[in-house]
Amino acid sequence: MAIKLGGGEGSDDELAEAHEINVTPFIDVMLVLLIIFMVAAPLATVDVRVELPTSTAAPQPRPEHPAFLTVAADLGLALGDAPVPRDGLGAALDAATGGDREQRVFLRADKGVAYGEVMAVLNLLRRAGYLKVALVGLDAGQAGP
Question: Which residues pair with 108 in a beta bridge?
Fold first, then answer.
């Protein structure tokens, strides 16, 4: 018993043309590119070094009775020259500004105070209703102590 698998050279059975596109290589390339971009994108934003410029803007006129809030190096707060506890900051500001929450509060912080501590004081000011805050720093021409 014999089995004939192919038609041979003179066979009428020709290979039919396939009209479908094989997308498997395209999908493989796209997945590889996706993985490359997923890995490379976070690495492009790590350790960005920034040197912030000094301010050269003209100083604004000083208000008649400014409210200076100071964050000392030991993280103590002072309104003007008087020490203020953190839980009494809102009442002290109301007394200093006459309850005018639209008055600007000038915030000064020691150079050694961590950024997170300055943000905590800003949050205290926001909870007390004082949203106009000016950060105080040295002019570009002044020398620091």
Answer: 70
